Amino acid sequence: MKIMPYTTAEAKKFDAAAVKGVTGRVVIGREDGASNFCMRVFELDKDGFTPRHSHDWEHEIFFHAGDGEVWCNGQWKPVFAGHIAFIPGGEEHQIRNAGDAKLVFACLIPKGPPEL
Q1: What is the rounded CA–CA span in Å between residue 59 and residue 107?
Q2: Most buried pick, 18, 78, 101, 104, via CB within 10 A?
Q3: How far apart are CA 61 and CA 84, in angstroms?
Q4: Could you tell me the CA-to-CA distances from 111 to 37, 46, 101, 103 in Å, in that order?
Q5: What is the pLDDT of residue 25?
Q6: How confident is the prediction for the chain on average, in pLDDT?
Q7: Which of 62, 104, 56, 52 has the alpha carbon at shortest distance from 83?
């Protein structure tokens, strides 16, 4: 069993042309003995965004704090703390911070893909 504040997991910062102001953490993964899923927590700084991309696996996302938008079917959809998003495999998606505070969300992926 593992119980801890997510902020104690190792943080990896992403900043490049396609991604801005993103901090990601694997909070539950292979190293913990998780055999089916990986849970990651992301923080997007003000004006931060993930890369627009697609892949074969699905995402389940829970938005914990902040205001954001998800690229979905060719348009931006607003999300707020308490919202969820299901992104099927093969669907183009992107997440961006649309507020002044950090956008924080937990993201589940199946085993197999890179954890972060």
Answers
A1: 6
A2: 104
A3: 5
A4: 5, 30, 31, 25
A5: 98
A6: 97
A7: 62
Domain spans of the chain, in order of start: 9-68+82-110
- Give me the pLDDT at residue 81, please: 98
88 class by beta-carbon count within 10 Å (0-12 exposed, 13-18 middle, 19+ buried): exposed
Neighbours of 47 (CB within 10 A): 12
Mean pLDDT of 58-86: 97
pLDDT at residue 115, as a whole number: 95
Statement: 9-68+82-110 belongs to CATH 3.90.420.10: no
Q: How far apart are CA 51 and CA 22, in angstroms?
A: 10
Burial class of residue 44 in the structure, from the number of CB atoms within 10 Å of its CB (0-12 exposed, 13-18 middle, 19+ buried): buried
- pTM for this one? 0.96
Classify the C-alpha dihedral 106-94-84-64 as positive or negative.
positive
Strand ranges inside 59-113, DSSP E: 59-65, 67-72, 75-80, 84-87, 94-97, 103-110
